[in-house]
Amino acid sequence: MESINFNDFSPGERHEIISAFLKKMRRINSMESAQRFMEHYLKSFYKIPVKMLEDIVYVQRAMRAFLYVHQTISRVCGGEVTSNPVKTKYLVEIEDELYEINAECQYLMLRLEDDIQRF
């Protein structure tokens, strides 16, 4: 099979080549091959924008830090968390922050999907 370096083509030419290939695969009912091709294409040529990559790393680190604090408080308190309102308040605040970080993570994934679609 002939190897094609897609970096040699402009984005418009790449789009035409890939569209023609996917149409051909659809006609011969070989979507599995088309999916493998697209996975290879994305792995080989798609680069995550630096800003988005930094945001993803930040969210991962924040999530890890808050989960560590939550686990530490839960472990130290044992089963006494519900009896102490101060400890309960801390856990609720941490859980709220985790929900916000999760929402940010979901937003980043939507941005990433959108960026891949435009690619």
Describe this protein with a few key phrases.
119 residues, mainly alpha, 79% helix, Maker730
Descriptive account of the structure:
Helices cover 79% and strands 0% of the residues. The chain is mainly alpha-helical. It has two domains: 6-45, no CATH class; 50-118. Helix 3 (50-77) runs antiparallel to helix 4. The two termini are 25 Å apart. The model has no long low-confidence stretch (mean pLDDT 81).
Classify the helix fraction into a percent range. Answer: over 70%
Shape descriptor reads elongated
Unreliable residue runs: none
Structural class: mainly alpha
Biggest sheet details: none
Beta percentage is under 5%
> Could you report the average pLDDT, rounded to the nearest whole number?
81
H/E series? HHHH
Count up the helices.
4
The figure for the number of domains is 2
Structure summary, number of beta strands: 0
Distance between the termini: 25 Å
Global Rg = 23 Å
Organism: Drosophila busckii
Protein name: Maker730
